[in-house]
Amino acid sequence: MIQYLIKMVPQYFLNARLCAVIMYFLFVSAAVAQGDSSVVNVPVDTLSSNISSDTAVDSINNTASDGSPSPRSNQGVTDTIYYESDYIDYDAEEKTLRLSGRAQIKYQNITLQADTIIYAIDANQFIAKGTPQLIEGTDTTAGEFMVYNIKTRRGRVSYASARFDETYVTGSNIVKTADNHLYIEQGDFTSCENIDHPDFFFLGRSVKIVPDDKMISRPVILNIGDAPVAILPYFIFPLQKGRRSGWLTPVWGGSLSRGGYLDNIGYYYAPNDYADFTLWAKAQEFNSFVLNASSNYALRYVLDGHISARYAIDNQLEVSDRQWAVKYRHNHSLTPDGRTRFTGSGEILSNRSFNQLYSDETYELEKQQLDANLALSHRFESINASANLIWRRNHNLTTDRILEDMPSFDFNLHTRAFIPYQPNEDTAQSGPSWYNNIYYSYNTKANVRRDVYGNDSLPGFIRPGMEHNVNLTSTQKFLNYFNVSPYFNTRASMFYGAIDTLVRDTLYIRDTVVYRVRNPARDTRFPEYTLLDIAPEFFINEAGDLDTIYTITKESPQRMHLVRDTLPNEFNLVHSWRAGVNLSTKVYGVFPVRLFNVTGLRHILTPTVGYSYIPKHDLNRTFYDVKIAYDGPRAKAQQLATFSLANQFQGKRLTGVGEAAREQKFDILSLSLSTAYDFEARSRKWHDPQLNANTSYNFLRAAYSSGFWLYDNADNLVAPIQKNYNVSLTTNNIGVKGNFWDGDLLRLDSSRYIDPLERQGKSGGSQSWNLGFNPGFNYRASRIAPGEPFKPVKSFNLAATAGFGFTNSLSMRWNGNYDFSSNRFTHNNFNFMYDLECWEMRFTWRPEKINPGYSFVVNIKKIPDIKWEQKGTKPASPYSDPFF
User: Fold this and answer.
1) N or C: which end of the chain has fewer CB within 10 A?
2) How far apart are CA 836 and CA 845, in angstroms?
3) CA 449 to chain centre
4) 3 state SS of 627
């Protein structure tokens, strides 16, 4: 985690108190940042301002305080040293080797290159002059003068530059210690590859580098170009790769309605490769605080998941409010074979207005339903069965109704043969007998249902229930062409408590909404609600002028709620059964059609006739909706004859050529018609016929459905009269793409640094664009009686995306969803990206109704947490609406 505290303070609605907190946080956080601050305090004699060759030799030669050689200096080099140069001069008496002209020495993973290198053999020491360069592994150090001991791997470089992975460091003097630490005097560091003219750099008086760990400087100045823009007393720059613990980068800003805020105050902790934890807070105008905690965890083949929680404290004048939100995802295999699992996902809010108050995410503001669940499941493979223990929760944010299964249990014994077929020598030729095709299944379900309203507008309940289902089915061949399928189903349901069927009273309920707008004349929210009040609120805007915001109060139409008496609490057992038989066959028609690559057409006709019997059922009560099925009262038995006719039109086409040619089947049209005849009905014995059709080709899908009356208003049997119809058209994503030009017209991309020697003949590259569309159309119409006019309802949505790469550095992407019924964008998002060699800029603009706003971020590419960020947000209100 980036451990530094440097930000450019945006001058946007920050009052004096917030600025004071920011400065206090910066200095305090800097003082307690990770790492020991004393490590930067290098002794004065170690970082001398001017280094000569004589003093350099003394400082690196590992001499003791009395001038005698230390035991370590007497240890010889244990590996071969390779050297080469234009001229080699060896002094046998002094035991020195002088390499002149393109000198190079290699020892293990160390390579030293310079114009001149003097090697003191006994001291294992090199003195390099004339643009020396030391390469040790992936790290490179260069300068004007260098002294290096290959045994102790200590050294000193004057007017040096060094590279550590993607970080470049320069300084007047660099000292390398035996523990491989670097101390730099008057150093600067950057991530720009053009180190002679970097876009930015940090300047530090004293810098310490711990390779593969961190870089520490105190103090430090951030320079943009050659201009200093910020200073901090302490700075820690991580050199580690991968996850690491550390303080988060604070973010501050402001909004018109809620004033200034300070966010992301916290710490990230990664104890191992299997889990991490983040704790941070947000302070808003000293009266609103949001505490956040999150964790990710994963253990391969066993479990993985994520959990996050938010706790909000809002103190407005004398009113104090506490709200919380939890979001989670969990997947855990409890047994190695995967048969037993514990899974769950969802989101829970303590109050339906939480997201409206404390979230700036569009997807959260658009949500009208929140679901959460936890499930413990097990598969019994030996008996082909499964069991589940499930907790479910649904929160309707519009009505504030909460439905909860706490918990539900189900056990399923899947379909199996009463007498399984056992092949042997006697039955191998004849195959399964008729009794081998008789199947049964069993399932049971128990549930405790909680049904409440968060606003207590309606009474709730907590009630249990249970049901058992047994099903018998069979499919037998008749005359080789017909399938006869008898069935028998029985159900037994149990409830605790019941409700009388007589209506005692009727309640009419209204909802009230409150939100704010800039211009009431352009307010289109809640058009079906009645306006109760418009209250102006005056304030001073950014420009210092008097401005106005209007608070709108509206009331919803009445909702009717029927009140029935509750019967005494006792267990109620309800049982029912039904039986029937279906007869079906298939008729095939093949048409040898030759048209283009089509080689034939096929028509599959599937007629089905069925009979069902449902006995009379006496029941003088209803039960709480606990998601347990039961049959309602039936004054007499029901006998139904059902009729359906399914049509499937298919074709074959030839793909490929020559020996690779193959016939491929494709669907053209599916068409079905169904109705039923009620033997026990006194009138209107024929049920309304239903017609359904659908087809698809390539990316386009079309569907049609319609219902018909077979009786007029006098209950006379007539020709079919249409009562409703529905047409829908949907597509896959339709996309096109191309290039503005092939790159030759843009020889140089000035937004990206390119070395002048590399510019010759180098173009800006291909400038591309892409467009994507995903339209959806639905039209439905219905009427209440024959002769009445149809009442149409249509909806047309268009989801689209667009991307434009103007240069290799500048690009734009847009995505949106437009609802033609309401003539507005339900989602609208523009993203502009500008990529420099060291920096990147992102501008996001959301001119939409639900979550309007913008975000502007400029950050260092290789250090994304060093950034300048500006956000514009919506007004904060439980029912807030964007300013018009």
Assistant:
1) C
2) 21
3) 31
4) coil
- The CB density around residue 47, as the number of other CB atoms within 10 Å, is 21
CA distances from 88 to 84, 129, 145 (A): 8, 15, 20
- CB crowding 58-83: b at 16 or more within 10 Å, else e: ebbbbeeeeeeeeeebeeeeeeebeb
Say yes or no to pLDDT of 377 above 70.
yes
* Maximum CA extent, the chain: 130
Check pLDDT > 50 for residue 757.
Answer: no
CA dihedral for 785, 786, 789, 794, sign (positive or negative): positive
Q: For residue range 586-613, what is the model confidence (pLDDT) as tens digits?
A: 999 988 888 888 888 999 999 999 999 9
Cβ(37)–Cβ(234) under 8 Å?
yes
pTM: 0.66
The better pLDDT of the pair 659, 254 is held by 659
User: Ramachandran region of residue 386, left (φ > 0), alpha (ψ -120 to 50) or beta?
Assistant: beta
Burial 621-633 (b: 16+ CB within 10 A, else e): ebbbebebebbee
List Cβ neighbours of 326 (8 Å cut-off, separation of 6 or more).
Answer: 307, 308, 309, 310, 347, 348
Average pLDDT in the 97-107 region?
88
For CA atoms 106, 109, 114, 117, the dihedral sign is negative
Q: What is the mean pLDDT of the chain?
A: 78
* C-beta neighbour count of 482 within 10 angstroms: 12
Query: Which is nearest to 153 in space by CA: 187, 112, 102?
Result: 112
Phi, psi of 366 (to 5 degrees): -80, -15
Closest CA to 680 of 750, 755, 614: 614
Q: How far apart are CA 43 and CA 46, in angstroms?
A: 5
Which two three-digit tokens encode residue 664?
């491929």
Q: Which residues pair with 844 in a beta bridge?
A: 831, 855
Question: Which of 438, 462, 855 is closest to 626 using CA atoms?
Answer: 462
Give residues with Cβ within 8 angstroms of 696, minimum separation 6: 667, 702
Specify the pLDDT at position 42. 38
Q: Taking the CA of residue 218 as centre, how many other CA atoms within 13 Å lie in the half-sphere pointing to its CB?
A: 17
Measured from the Cβ of residue 524, the count of other Cβ atoms closer than 10 Å reads 12
Residue 487 sits at φ, ψ, to 5 deg, of -150, 155
- Among residues 805, 182, 402, 385, the alpha carbon closest in space to that of 174 is found at 182
What's the rounded Cα separation, in Å, for the pair 453 and 451?
Answer: 7
The type of residue at 637 is A
How far are the Cα atoms of 337, 702, 735 from residue 699, in angstroms, in the given order?
41, 10, 11
Please check whether residue 84 is in contact with residue 100, taking contact to mean a CB–CB distance below 8 angstroms.
no
d(C-alpha 336, C-alpha 152), whole Å: 52
Task: Supply 456's token pair.
Answer: 């207590």
Helix (H) or strand (E) holding 297: strand 288-299
Q: Which two tokens stand for residue 694?
A: 């659908």
Smallest Cα–Cα separation from 27: which of 6, 10, 8? 6
Residue closest to 614 by CA, chosen among 674, 675, 678, 676: 678
**CA 591 from chain center: how many Å?**
51
Reference 12, options 231, 254, 259; nearest CA is 254
- Supply 691's token pair: 């017609």
Assess whether pLDDT exceeds 70 at residue 85: yes
Instruction: For residue 272, count CB atoms less than 10 angstroms from its CB and return exposed for 0-12, middle for 13-18, buried for 19 or more.
Output: exposed
Strand ranges in 355-498 using DSSP code E only, listed in sequence order: 369-380, 385-396, 401-417, 438-453, 461-474, 476-478, 482-496
- For residue 65, give both structure tokens: 């305080």
> Which tokens sit at 8?
């450019």
Q: What is the CA radius of gyration of the chain?
A: 39
- The Cβ of residue 288 has, within 10 Å, a number of other Cβ atoms equal to 20
Which residue carries 């309800």 as its tokens?
574
How many residues does this entry show for the chain?
A: 884
535: phi then psi, degrees, rounded to nearest 5: -115, 120
Asked whether 358 and 310 are in contact (CB, 8 A), the reply is yes
